[in-house]
């Protein structure tokens, strides 16, 4: 990583701005038909014919959204693209292009940015999106990364947060809480390392949750699966901040209530065992942890047979009238009001 004394170190000032941009972007390939012109002019040119276009952006700040003492730069590059693509998929759209802007201090050598761009390029290849532009500038201290993602969706196929109707089923992809517990393990190892730098972290047994934190995936496959099953969700959102706050967004915007069943929330066995180790309630982690990047959506009851038994999808509740409110039905079958704590307030 950046502090490794054995790594070569090329100063960014040796290349200059244009040399740097050229060096970082020269391997990027154009794969999408809709990309008419990518990097190299004043603006990229895209052509979406009759499709609708979706646009979304995220800004990641060192020390706020990532910690380079345990996040390798290659993973960070990958993740910064993936989190944006997740927002495109949450609109039921196909991601097609991204732009990547970075602000970087001279603390970083060229090799660090090469690693970051290796991750960006890998994500672009895995998800079949083109990097069509960006901006490169200096910062006085840390690293900032801003990614904008662009996608396309056929007319009337886009899905908003506001379309859920009473009696719809509430469905989530994959499993929840892994990224948060991965972060707990990484934070613990960081503290151990501070006390004894010779102590190599032993991360066996935590592989799945650490990967969920450092190298998350966006659920492109779920959008494709739903299309193949001919299921169009009535509402959809990606789970970036924890299930409970995403359910609240979806229900508030749809003007409905919901009953969420605790015993239906999908958890990986590793999340359950690490929650026991840390003495944290796994439901709390699924509800209030973050960064799982799964898709949460609602479907009409009539579509249930099409998704029934699919291993990637869990029906976790159903939509009610607005006046009924938002509730968690616990394993003990008591109903408690659902509160959004979100990621930031989790430790309060
Ligand atoms: P301008 O002066 O018009 O902003 P730049 O010199 O910043 O142009 O950029 C030249 C080209 O390189 C543009 O196509 C721009 O989108 C692209 N570019 C600049 N920085 C990056 C980056 N970090 N990643 C990808 N493309 C970039
Ligand atoms: Mg520029």
Keywords for this entry:
about 350 residues; alpha+beta; 4-stranded mixed beta sheet; 10 helices; 13 strands; about 30% helix; binds adenosine-5'-diphosphate; binds magnesium ion
What does this structure look like?
This protein is of the alpha+beta class and 348 residues long. It is built from ten helices and 13 strands. It has a seven-stranded mixed sheet with strand order 8-10-7-11-9-12-13, with helices on both faces. Strand 12 (326-329) and strand 13 form a beta hairpin. Helix 2 (73-89) runs parallel beside helix 3. The longest helix has 18 residues, at 110-127. Residues 342-348 have low confidence and may be disordered. Bound molecules: adenosine-5'-diphosphate and magnesium ion (MG). Residues 21, 25, 39-42, 100-102, 131, 133-136 line the site of adenosine-5'-diphosphate. Adenosine-5'-diphosphate binds next to helix 1, strand 4 and strand 5.
Structure described in brief:
Helices cover 32% and strands 23% of the residues. The chain has helices at 16-25, 73-89, 110-127, 178-195, 207-214, 220-228, 243-254, 269-278, 282-288, 304-307; strands at 35-37, 45-46, 52-61, 94-104, 130-138, 144-153, 169-173, 235-239, 257-261, 294-299, 313-320, 326-329, 335-337.
What topology emerges from the helices and strands here?
Blueprint: H1 16-25, E1 35-37, E2 45-46, E3 52-61, H2 73-89, E4 94-104, H3 110-127, E5 130-138, E6 144-153, E7 169-173, H4 178-195, H5 207-214, H6 220-228, E8 235-239, H7 243-254, E9 257-261, H8 269-278, H9 282-288, E10 294-299, H10 304-307, E11 313-320, E12 326-329, E13 335-337
Parallel strand pairs: 4-5, 9-12
Antiparallel strand pairs: 1-2, 3-6, 4-6, 7-10, 7-11, 8-10, 9-11, 12-13
Helix pairs in contact: 2-3, 4-5
The protein binds adenosine-5'-diphosphate (ADP) and magnesium ion.
